[in-house]
TrEMBL record:
GO terms for molecular function: reactive-black-5:hydrogen-peroxide oxidoreductase activity. This is Multifunctional dye peroxidase DyP2. NCBIfam families: Dyp_perox_fam (TIGR01413). Residues 14-136 form the DyP dimeric alpha+beta barrel domain. It comes from the Bacteria. Its cofactor is heme b. Belongs to the DyP-type peroxidase family. Its EC number is 1.11.1.16. Pfam families: DyP_N. InterPro entries: Dimeric_a/b-barrel (IPR011008), DyP_N (IPR049509), Dyp_peroxidase (IPR006314). Keywords: Iron, Metal-binding, Oxidoreductase, Peroxidase. The keyword Ribonucleoprotein does not apply.
Length: 444
């Protein structure tokens, strides 16, 4: 593990959406724009630089409300960023998410050909995200941001997705969301696992040393420094299929909850199997200081408590040596629910679109998001499980079952259907506030 060091992050230049977790409860909106006129696109950057919230602004009158501005590779090109600068961005970013579909296992129903228009196309240039504790304050944030893009005929709004917290503050499969958050050195924001040493700031913010001692930043430095990469994905959740799978493989309601916990690695209250292996502990699940403070190797190296193939152990193996240097693949993950909940007890799909807007923040698209997505979520080699994929978000082949380690005989469940389908997404760059102004001041 890396030892703590004195690092001063320029928080007043970093967008707050990079480092701050979403409030609880929350409401959020994603707005996507296409730049049709270069000069007006630059004007959009100038205006948004005054609207985007900095990471230092944690005591504003709006409270836990902020606006973030992200730009795709195609957006940077539309703004007229020189080729010499574009070529210094991560190559995955330059390709775009749709071109990376095979590596991400976005195939079949999740393939870009099936995505919701205009996601995954070269028309997606700018993504403005607003987050607030409730709908009234969200609308206030949108109203505050509207002058940045309003009355710019050369900038066209092409897509919007509204998100919110369910009444239970859970996602559509019934699990408490937003439990895990890494500590970032120099941010002053504590992580959710008190046993985890803060990660080097360069793992998440460009222009600072990372875990390997390197400093990554697109050029010129005024553009790259204090920025980050962001991944946005719209993920449809088949809540009815998930409920049916639990029912069909369980001996009763209590067993359904046990299977749900073994699939996720947590009870649906948020309590982890590592700390509550035999039964749910709702008080633990609601305690932010305890529910994520645990490791695996000392108490459960073989996965009899928390299965090695469950979702949270794949997404963050913590101290598991079998997964290599875990710290090189840590991510800041955020989820925002969209669509109405499936009514309680309903087991058949009602045809309503519901799911999760997933966001990843980091400085290394390849060894963070793409590695976790391709190697940990959609392969089982690291966990000694061959080609078995993540039971929740993996690209299920509908032939492979799920195995729960158990003495004296392991428990094998039926073949996993696909519970989550990709509806679209994109790789984005979250510029620092200085970089937003720089983009606004570009000249041909």
């Amino acid at each position: 593990m890396s030892a703590p060091a004195d690092v001063t992050l320029e928080l007043d230049d970093i967008q707050r959406g990079v480092l701050s977790s979403r409030p609880t409860p929350y409401a959020a909106t994603y707005l996507v724009f296409r730049i049709d006129d270069r000069s007006q696109g630059r004007e959009l950057m100038r205006r948004t630089s005054a609207v985007a919230t900095s990471a230092a602004d944690t005591a504003s009158p709006l409270g836990d409300t902020w606006v973030s501005v992200a730009v795709t590779y195609w957006g940077l090109a539309a703004l007229g960023v020189p080729r010499s600068s574009l070529d210094t961005f991560a190559w995955e970013f330059r390709q775009g998410m749709a071109a990376r579909a095979r590596a991400l296992r976005d195939e079949g129903a999740s393939s870009p050909q099936q995505w919701e228009a205009p996601l995954g196309t070269h028309d997606v240039h700018v993504v403005i995200t607003a987050v607030a504790p409730d709908p009234p304050r969200l609308e206030a944030a949108i109203d505050r941001a509207r002058p940045a893009y309003d009355r710019l005929p050369g900038v066209t709004a092409i897509w919007r997705q509204d998100c919110y917290a369910l009444p239970t503050e859970k996602e559509h499969f019934g699990y408490l969301d937003g439990v895990s958050h890494p500590a970032v050195e120099g941010s002053g924001i504590p992580g959710s696992n008190e046993l985890e040493v803060p990660l080097k700031s360069g793992e998440f913010v460009l222009g600072y040393p990372d875990e390997l001692g390197g400093v990554q930043a697109p050029q010129p430095d005024v553009l790259g420094r204090n920025g980050s990469y962001a991944v946005f994905r719209k993920l449809h959740q088949n809540a009815a299929a998930f409920r049916r799978y639990l029912r069909d493989n369980a001996t009763g309601p209590e067993d359904e909850e046990l299977i749900a916990a073994k699939i996720m690695g947590r009870w649906r209250s948020g309590a982890p199997l590592a700390l509550a292996p035999r039964h749910d502990d709702p008080a633990l699940g609601t305690d932010p200081h305890r529910r994520n403070t645990f490791l695996y190797e000392e108490n459960d190296p073989t996965g009899f408590l928390t299965p090695g193939g469950c979702h949270i152990r794949r997404a963050n193996p913590r101290d598991a040596s079998v997964a290599g240097e875990v710290r090189l693949h840590r991510m800041i993950r955020r989820g925002a629910v969209y669509g109405p909940p499936l009514p309680e007890g309903v087991l058949e799909d009602d045809g309503v679109d519901r799911g999760l807007m997933f966001a990843f923040i980091g400085a290394h698209l390849g060894r963070q998001f793409e590695f976790v997505q391709s190697e940990w979520m959609n392969d089982g080699v690291f966990f000694g499980a061959g080609n078995v994929r993540d039971p929740v978000v993996g690209a299920a082949d509908e032939e492979t079952g799920y195995t729960i380690p158990r003495r004296p005989v392991r428990r094998r469940l039926a073949a996993l259907p696909r519970f989550v389908t990709t509806r679209g997404g994109e790789y984005c760059f979250l510029p620092g506030l200085t970089a937003l102004r720089w983009l606004g001041d570009l000249r041909d």
